[in-house]
């Protein structure tokens, strides 16, 4: 059985891409077959997997989704790239912005990505989708395709208000389009253990959401080593194998596997 997890938060820079790649590679290290999908027009997941200029790629998620809109048949493996650390990925780039605008007039506009993902499901154990920092139509497509949503929250600001809107949108998609949709959990990222602030945010999350949403036991520490990896094109396991961020992502991977 394949599980599809969307990594989403409409707030930018909270660790969505870093979590998608390192959770994905963590799952691959546990022997799982993993496909990562870059559903963000910034192409940062694609870049972090070693593609230096995502905007120059010819086949990306945008071209695939356009083919589906045009009812063209595509082979499941078409356009999928392989990363040296054992994950496959469907790259994304700036063309997703144009596609987002044109989706408005498309029949079944919420389910285009789902059509693509359905044909990948027998090839993978996990499919992770790195979402845009917005709740636009591509993100709704990701929610429509997913079994669950993992929400990274940066431990450096008060996240309560934005999260409420995100959880509401997830609830709406669940009621109206995708009844199986669940929240995988809220993941605290970029935690600076030298301050009490992270603990305050953690307590605030538990107080406000703990009864409705799972909060991951593991959080991801702030580390300059994590910030370096997007330029390296490798995971934190390769860049800093004995560091605290590698160990945190490994524990998160085990927690996600334990959710099954
Ligand atoms: N644990 C961490 N410690 C320090 N820096 C981090 C950590 N995780 C991610 N970063 C850095 O923070 C920035 C934002 O991270 P990332 O790109 O993963 O967030 P995002 O939510 O995907 O961003 P966007 O919304 O723009 O897509 C990046 O420069 C990344 O390298």
Automatic annotation (TrEMBL):
Residues 3-183 form the AAA domain. It catalyses: ATP + H2O = ADP + phosphate + H(+). Pfam families: AAA_31. Gene3D superfamilies: P-loop containing nucleotide triphosphate hydrolases (3.40.50.300). InterPro entries: AAA_dom, DNA_Partitioning_ATPase, P-loop_NTPase. It comes from the Bacteria. Dimerizes in the presence of ATP but not ADP; ATP-binding is required for double-stranded (ds)DNA-binding. Interacts with DnaA. Belongs to the ParA family. This is Sporulation initiation inhibitor protein Soj. It comes from Hominifimenecus microfluidus. The lineage of its organism: Bacteria, Bacillati, Bacillota, Clostridia, Lachnospirales.
């Amino acid at each position: 059985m394949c599980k599809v997890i969307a990594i989403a938060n409409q707030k930018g820079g909270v660790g969505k891409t870093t979590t998608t790649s390192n959770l994905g590679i963590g799952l691959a290290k546990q022997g799982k077959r993993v496909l990562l999908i870059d559903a963000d027009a910034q192409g940062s997941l694609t870049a972090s997997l070693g593609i230096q200029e995502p905007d120059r790629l010819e086949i990306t998620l945008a071209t695939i989704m356009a083919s589906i809109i045009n009812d063209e048949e595509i082979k499941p493996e078409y356009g999928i790239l392989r990363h040296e650390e054992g994950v496959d990925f469907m790259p994304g780039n700036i063309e997703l912005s144009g596609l987002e605008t044109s989706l408005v007039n498309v029949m079944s506009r919420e389910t285009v990505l789902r059509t693509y993902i359905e044909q990948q499901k027998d090839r993978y154990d996990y499919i992770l989708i790195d979402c845009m920092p917005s709740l636009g139509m591509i993100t709704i497509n990701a929610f429509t395709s997913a079994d669950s949503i993992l929400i990274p929250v940066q431990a450096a600001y008060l996240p309560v208000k934005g999260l409420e809107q995100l959880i509401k949108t997830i609830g709406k998609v669940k009621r109206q389009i995708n009844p199986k949709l669940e929240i995988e959990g809220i993941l605290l990222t970029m935690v600076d253990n030298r301050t009490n602030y992270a603990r305050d945010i953690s307590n605030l999350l538990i107080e406000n959401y703990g009864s409705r949403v799972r909060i991951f036991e593991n959080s991801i520490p702030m580390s300059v080593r994590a910030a370096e990896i997007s330029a390296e094109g490798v995971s934190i396991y390769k860049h800093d194998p004995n560091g605290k961020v590698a160990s945190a992502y490994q524990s998160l991977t085990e927690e996600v596997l334990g959710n099954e």
